[in-house]
Design brief:
The complex is a heterodimer of chains A (499) and B (122). With 499 residues, chain A is mainly α. Chain A has helices at residues 3-21, 27-53, 75-98, 101-105, 108-124, 128-147, 152-183, 188-197, 201-218, 227-231, 237-261, 267-291, 295-316, 319-350, 361-364, 366-380, 386-400, 404-430, 448-467, 470-484, 487-495, and strands at residues 56-59, 70-73. Chain A has a domain at 269-467. Chain A has a two-stranded antiparallel sheet. In chain A, helix 5 (108-124) runs parallel beside helix 11 and helix 12 packs antiparallel against helix 13. The radius of gyration of chain A is 22 Å and the shape is globular. Chain B is elongated and about 75 Å long. The termini of chain B are far apart. Chain B has helices at 2-20, 25-46, 72-102. Classes of the chains: A mainly alpha (499), B mainly alpha (122).
């Protein structure tokens, strides 16, 4: 059993228990921050191990695969675990400034850690049913975080979030049941050969659609995204940020995993659907963003739009396209978390999120303006910020695949994203505040440090990704190569029990 | 036995979809219970059903006789039932809160998070 795989999972769950025990005191929140820091270290160790060794595999309880539960990390998994830990550290620090004691006493920090643990588990597992269990861990924690505070908007958003996610869970579970009925295994590496060897390919194509719908719903892909803009702007900013950065990406990751590892023989059915879904997701997302006037509602629609870019990489399924999507994934998680946290500070200073009722931030808080510029325009794909390189790779890949309409869609969506970001800039930063308020960063008082440090840290990461993209692009290309030729993954999982 | 289960699952899913398409939270929840039970029965039938042949390993042998039911789906169903129960309990309380806070269970009237007609106001 490999400890490198277990530590990133143990860190959040141990932290959850400890911060629950100390939830009545100030130390509870600092336990959460320390635990998140440990999770980052554990994720870094796993990343180093994956870079040195290739696929890291652990069999839980030393039951050999495919009978036991397998944990496995290739480059994509290790990257996602690291990004989860980094986002976790950022939001738990921000939470120390934002979340008030009534929520802390209810166990806010431990629910957040359980959510992070569930997300990490989903990225590490090599077993389909275990993936379902991690999804549930993640879901139930996110339900709790969504309604914490109990304001009517939160309850309203939660109704839509909970119900639609439960439907997708049922679809996922049915897919697992049917797939087990056809192949007799649930280990993802084992499923690859079992699916290829099965003589009921028609049935398998139908089952793959169950997974497409279930994960597409979690990822907020085109016709299934309605729960996201209904709920993501309602909870505390900390919660919005972690939802925005990670939850939909778990759906995207699962789509990448399942459609490159298990259902990759039959691209005839899934690929055209994915191409349409990807294109429509990016276009509807950005159009929705333009129609909104509230900070977080704009950003929520932008999440949907960027899911489209990620799905485009999977749909084209060339090495360059997948590498582009993986690079875009790195950029997107960091930038989305930073943007939602920035929106939190903006709302706090200007006294609201409706762009028509706020303004004047550039005059009084220019430093915040710089932070928003970096992340907002990185999302829009300004060179040399991090979003630019992901889009360059995706445009190159779609040109190479002669998908002209999708190339045009990527470019137009980029343009509209710039429009939507400049709207925020013009309304919230340039325009005078309608009530002649002069919000300044000093208004944050002694919470200034904990609120701004995570945003600055994420901005630095995003800048690093944009200014020195080459090592990350090389990494993304290697990760894409691993996904497209999963034989090494399969051999590592089924070959023997890990070190 | 398989046919009977298939018909049951189909009937449950049909009833569930009918209930879930109603614009009422409580009916939606009943639909959700039915459809998650349908999914559980589906998994159950995926492991094949054999009457009167328990999947036990005879003394001295290393594997059960061929033709017995697969026990793994039953373990999966057990996990899914527990998780489903937890989620259903949560949804039920959420529905109650929605009724007390929003004053309605009709999903069409739940517009607090996404108010209508807000865009017209300057």
């Amino acid at each position: 059993m490999s400890w490198f795989l277990v530590f990133p999972l143990m860190a959040p769950f141990a932290t959850a228990v400890l911060s629950f025990l100390y939830r009545q005191r100030d130390s509870g929140r600092w336990i959460a921050v320390t635990g998140s820091l440990l999770a980052v270290l554990a994720a870094l160790a796993l990343m180093v191990q994956v870079l040195n060794q290739g696929v890291v595999v652990g069999q839980m309880g030393n039951w050999p695969a495919p009978y036991g539960i397998t944990l496995a990390a290739d480059r994509l998994s290790a990257m996602m675990v690291l990004l989860t830990a980094i986002s976790g550290l950022a939001v738990s620090l921000y939470a120390a400034g934002e979340v008030d004691t009534t929520l802390e006493v209810l166990g806010f920090h431990s629910l957040m850690q359980i959510l992070l643990g569930g997300v990490t588990g989903a990225f590490l597992t090599g077993d389909l049913f275990n993936l379902y269990v991690w999804f549930e861990v993640m879901l139930i924690a996110s339900f709790g975080l969504q309604i914490m505070g109990g304001r009517p908007e939160q309850i309203d958003g939660a109704v839509k979030y909970v119900t639609l996610n439960l439907v997708s869970t049922v679809v996922f579970l049915s897919g697992i049941g049917l797939l087990y009925g056809v192949t007799g295994t649930l280990n993802m590496a084992d499923l690859r050969s079992a699916v290829a060897a099965s003589d009921r390919q028609g049935l398998i194509a139908v089952i793959s659609m169950f997974f497409l719908i279930a994960f597409g719903m979690k990822a907020a892909a085109f016709p299934l995204f309605f729960w996201l803009p209904a709920s993501y702007h309602t909870p505390t900013h900390t919660v919005s940020a972690v939802f925005a950065g990670l939850l939909t990406k778990v759906g995207v990751y699962s789509l990448f995993r399942v459609f490159t590892l298990i259902f990759d023989q039959d691209t005839g059915l899934a690929q055209p659907i994915l191409l349409w879904v990807a294109g429509l997701t990016m276009v509807t997302g950005v159009l929705g963003a333009i129609a909104q006037t509230e900070l977080r509602r704009i950003l929520s629609y932008q999440i949907i739009s960027s899911i489209g870019f990620l799905l485009l990489g999977l749909a084209l399924s060339t090495p360059l396209a997948i590498a582009g999507a993986i690079f875009y994934l790195m950029h997107n998680i960091i930038v989305k978390v930073a943007l939602f946290l920035t929106a939190g500070v903006m709302a706090r200073l200007a006294g609201g999120e409706d762009l028509r009722r706020i303004g004047g931030l550039y005059k009084t808080a220019p430093a915040l303006g710089v932070l928003f510029l970096i992340t907002g325009f990185s999302l829009a794909g300004f060179p040399p910020l991090s979003g630019f390189w992901g889009k360059v790779l995706l445009v190159k890949a779609s040109l190479a695949s002669e998908a002209w309409i999708l190339t045009a869609a990527v470019l137009v969506v980029g343009l509209l994203t710039i429009y939507s970001m400049t709207t925020i800039w013009a309304e919230a930063f340039w325009k005078n505040h309608p009530d002649d308020r002069d919000p300044a960063l000093a208004d944050l008082g002694d919470k200034r440090g904990v609120l701004l440090t995570p945003i600055v840290g994420l901005c630095v990461l995003s800048l690093g990704l944009g200014l020195f993209p080459q090592p990350f692009i090389t990494f993304a290309e290697a990760a894409a190569a691993q996904l497209l030729a999963p034989d090494a993954y399969v051999a590592a999982v089924l070959g023997g029990s890990g070190p | 036995m398989g046919t009977l289960l298939a018909v049951t699952v189909g009937g449950l899913v049909a009833a569930a979809v009918y209930l879930m398409l109603q614009r009422d939270m409580l009916r939606f929840l009943f639909g959700l219970t039915l459809i998650s039970n349908a999914a559980n029965l589906l998994i159950f039938s995926a492991g094949q059903l054999t009457a009167g042949r328990p999947p036990l390993v005879p003394e001295g042998a290393k594997a059960p006789d061929p033709g017995v039911a697969n026990a793994l789906p039953q373990a999966l169903v057990l996990t899914a039932v527990v998780i489903g129960f937890g989620l259903f309990a949560f949804s039920l309380v959420l529905t109650l809160r929605a009724y007390t806070n929003l004053g309605t269970l009709r999903t069409d009237d739940m517009r607090v998070a996404e108010p209508l007609g807000d865009d017209v106001k300057a």
